[in-house]
Amino acid sequence: MNKSLHVIPSVFFILLAMFWIAESYMSLGVIHYTAISVVVLLTFQLFHKQRYIGLLYSIVLTVFSGYMLCKSFIDNAAIALPTGGTFRFLIIKSILFGTALLMALVMLNYYFKIIKLKKDDATSV
Questions:
Q1: CB–CB of 16/100 below 8 Å?
Q2: Rounded to whole angstroms, how far apart are CA atoms 24 and 100?
Q3: Exposed (0-12), middle (13-18) or buried (19+): which is 104, by Cβ within 10 Å?
């Protein structure tokens, strides 16, 4: 994988959190401090490349994305009479959270490889 491609998942989640901030502010008029902290932490991780913290972030993002993907399907199954609008909303949520799950798995794979390479280098010395 190209050296610069590993930043795509981090940038994706930073942009997603920035959208979350804008959506919360525009719809409710509140400042969403959780989303701001996600942006700050992922930006810090993007520039400083802490291996174990990146692994922790990728595990949390993988679990959250998988949960939200499953929850979107469960919520759609609970609707007694789905309409065209609810089906379109399910497709949009599935694409969004499916992409987030894929990006989180790519991030998880990247940090597992980095940690494995560092451990292999340490044991070979």
A1: yes
A2: 19
A3: buried
DSSP symbol at 79:
-
Q: What secondary structure does DSSP assign to 34-56, as a single string?
A: HHHHHHHHHHHHHHH--HHHHHH
Q: At what angle do helices 84-124 and 8-28 cross, to 10 degrees?
A: 140
Q: Under 8 Å CB-to-CB from 21, ≥6 apart: which residues?
A: 31, 32, 35, 36, 39
pLDDT digits 0-9 by tens, 46-99 = 888 888 888 899 999 999 999 999 998 888 777 767 777 888 888 888 999 999
| Residue 70, both tokens | 């499953």
Evaluate the CA torsion angle 25, 30, 32, 33 in order and state its sign.
Answer: positive
Structure letter (DSSP) for residue 81: S
CA nearest 106: which of 11, 16, 6? 6
Residue 80 tokens read as 């007694």
